[in-house]
Input
Amino acid sequence: LNMVASSAPFPEYASRSHSGTMAGSGSARNVILFLLLLFFLAAWSTPAHAQESPYIVTYDHYLEEPGNLEVEYFSTFGTQRGGNDFDAFWSELEYGATAWWTTEFYLDGQTTFNDSTIFTGFRWENRIRLLQREHFINPVLYIEYEQTSGADKILKEVEGHDVESDYAIPNALARKEHDHELESKLLLSRTFKGWNVAENTIATKNLTGGNPWEFGYAMGFSRPLGLKASAQRCNFCPENFIAGVEMYGGLGDRYSFGLHDTSHYLAPVVAWNLPSDWTLRLSPGFGLNDNSHRFLLRWGVSREFSGIGEMINRFLGGRQ
Amino acid sequence: MILRRNLAITEEDDGSTMHHWSYWFAKWTTIFLIVFAAASTSARTKSSRLANEDNSVYAELGKAPQKAAKRENPLQDDPEAVAAGEKLFALHCAECHGEMAEGGRKAPSLLADPVQQATPGTLFWILTNGVVRRGMPVWSKLPEPQRWQLVRYIESLGPAPKSPRKGRHQLENLSKKH
Output
């Protein structure tokens, strides 16, 4: 892997590239306060075990259990032709508001090697289960508002005519672009005989400027390595591991729908659900055409906490 | 409004841009926490109501289709099914139904007669489909054999004795521990 690229492609920006880093700014103080808040939330709640899906891009139809909060951290290392490789990262707070509604808050950032580390935006996502019971296919409506800069590289979804060269722009320049996007997805998923099959159709509208609707897709399938649970508590039991494959990419926009000038990825995925309530995920992704990054290495760690809703209520003086 | 702020950020240099990020961070964190608190209040209200409406919750058992209710548990004679089910119960169910399945504020007792008298197929159906409107998520993400192991464990609990308020399996467990 070309972990450290040879040189910055736009040297004229190199001298100012570190001026906007998170360290030393007011946002660093906010992040610390936020993490402290999270720490107290976690300290006053109990861990909860969940059978987490291995997907990092694709969504299945399972929502967060009501009242539970899942705290997640993900990282995406990406190779970059014509620019510097990068490591983009995001934190996720996923809360099960009800059994049919999950809401999530994201904080994004990235480090571009030989350039800078910057904070790149926020996302607020909501998933709503449309049908009460399990059916042949289970639809979930996904609505997200995101406010990110042009330097955002987490590649949480690929849409429109997103191509590798978009990510070669130096941070100092890319961060000046500010996007307010409304993203909707229809999540379709089914689990049969241990196999989960999921398909997501994406439609995104950038609310700034006259940008057209952009489209994309993600799909995946996965299965636990063991279907029966063993009687003993164990870390390495086959049922704790879920493996699969996901594929995602862009489908153009309203005026030029299709596969031309789009990027696509194929990524094996694996999740390890530990009895200690932690989940680890790993996914090496491979670009499928010349417009795609050649290699993306994603990993994530998450932990779920129960009783957060009740704790907040107590904190706000709610009746016991 | 958004556009104006956008322009303001764009016109400034990198050094002060972070102040705007700080502003947006604080704003969105506040919005998320408000929604979070509202949602948790909503969830808690429904949970409390659910605990007080045990009878109507148990009525969900009657909604299982006949074909589903008649299904036999393929792990009925599996000697490890109860122990595995107990482990799964502790991981996924005890949080709401209580460590001894005695029920809690969020979910009803599984020692109650309607549950203990339900067929294995009915319990499996409820586990698979959940009772989403009342706060029980679908558990089809657990593979079928694991759901059957859970059914086997729930059956093994037996009905709650009048006093002490423990099921047969719990009493056995407690006597083993002491």
Q: What stands out?
A: The CA atoms of residues 58 and 114 of chain B lie 6 Å apart. Chain B touches chain A through 61 residues (CB under 8 Å). Chain B has a mean pLDDT of 77. The radius of gyration of chain B is 23 Å.
